[in-house]
Amino acid sequence: MRRQPEIWRALVALERLAERHPDGFLGYDHEFRIVLWSPVLAKMFGIDAEDALGRDLFAVLPFLREGGEDKSFRAALRGAHKEVRGLAFALPETGRAGTLHLYYSPILSDEGEVGGGLAVIRDATAEEKAREQFLETESRFRRMADNSPVLLWMSGPNGLCNFFNQTWLEFTGRTLAEEYDVGWAEGVHHEDFQYCIDTYMAAFKRRESFEMEYRLRRADGEYRWILDRGAPRYSPSGEFAGYIGSCTDITERKLAERELAKAVNLRDEFLSIASHELKTPITSLKLQVQLLRHTLGTIGSTEAVARIGKAVDMSERQIAKLTELVQDLLDVSRLSAGRLTLTYQTVELGTLVRDVVERLSGLARVAGSTVDLRIQENVAGNWDHLRIEQVVVNLLTNAIKYGLGKPIVISVTKRGGGARISVRDQGIGIAKDQVGRIFDRFARAVSAEHFGGLGLGLYIAREIIKAHGGRICVESEPGAGAEFIAELPLVPATPLAEARS
Ligand code: ADP
What we know:
Elements: H1 5-20, E1 24-28, E2 34-37, H2 39-45, H3 49-52, H4 57-60, H5 63-66, H6 70-77, E3 82-91, E4 96-108, E5 114-123, H7 125-147, E6 151-155, E7 161-164, H8 166-172, H9 176-179, H10 190-206, E8 210-217, E9 223-234, E10 240-249, H11 251-296, H12 302-336, E11 345-348, H13 349-359, H14 361-367, E12 371-375, E13 380-383, H15 385-401, E14 408-415, E15 418-424, H16 432-435, H17 457-467, E16 471-476, E17 482-489
Helix pairs in contact: 11-12, 12-17, 13-15, 15-17
The structure holds adenosine-5'-diphosphate (ADP).
Residues 394, 398-399, 402, 425, 427-430, 438, 443-446, 453-459, 482 line the site of adenosine-5'-diphosphate (ADP).
């Protein structure tokens, strides 16, 4: 091996450095003969120094020329510095293969002339494998994330979001670029925004997991309730790397919860009205019984007998009221359980209505209302007598109760293939926004202070008419009265055995 004396000193210095350096050092002269071959290279390529020194470097490492690297070696001889990363190599004779990073520079003489070239070579095989594995893991994660039914997001150690899966992007209908950093927060409902940011930031500061519910705008513009669960994530070396979060659409659950809360509210309100309604006649009954006991002591006088008679009348009225309330409650539970059975018989509607009006005439008189009957004769059908009677009692009682003592008109007519009952009053009427709900269970359109009632009568009436295959509706002008119209088919549409509501 012949070393050019002008770079001799430089080579000696490089040789020393190379002994301790983790990278391999390859020195060459202007004829591409190897003049420096460090121990690291011997190990890297499986070629000892004595087999390499003095030889043509492209003959020793043929892959360099095959990979086009001879250009870099030449460039260094022209004084250039160059870096090449990720060069694949294979040496079939020694069985070595892998990836290299190379750094080229000229070797300068004391006079500053290029006396040769130096390639510092690093074995990057393990590093490259790790990088590939990382990329593979990363792409596998993305594939999994994108196919996940839940919406996923990730943030970095600075709290800003740097990943959203495909499911998220499809949900919001926005691009990654739009959602990045804090862009995603634009889709959060303005009422939930502050809570959302506060929860995230508070958890973030303490590196704690969190759970929050908020409304997020879907691609179609509808806000959906989202349950977002976030957890801190850490790098393999234990460093805090940000958060990862998963979101599920819980709108249906939220709605069900709200419905349930409404139902519970309605039930509680009903129970309080029901107990009040039941207590009133009981209090009155108690009073009458006390009066009876007191009057018993003075029995013998005609005045006492008259008083007893009055108290008994009153008690009977209260008992009838209680029975009616309990009957309504029973009917509702029957209807809820689908156990309303009808017993069909031939009913002449005019006669039925006349009887009811007769029975309630006392009540109408007390209220100051007259009841005008307009009955077409012989409107007969196959119906449940007691149930139809219940409907008429209900409609007429309401007309008297809400009729402000003004005249009431009841008519019975034949219409097409059916019968029609109309009960019209000129009382308080029904507010427009209440008309749609007064047939619902427990629905009342008046305040409990002014009018009693459980809000069940019309519900039961509607169910009875429905079970007969008919329909019931109301027309009303607030302040000008209401007309309730029930229509019944002459032959019930539902066969007897299935006549259940
Ligand atoms: P209630 O026992 O409370 O009267 P209903 O089911 O019979 O229950 O009636 C439901 C609601 O409909 C009543 O609370 C009342 O607000 C309204 N309503 C019923 N009939 C009339 C009517 N003839 N005029 C005005 N409002 C009525």
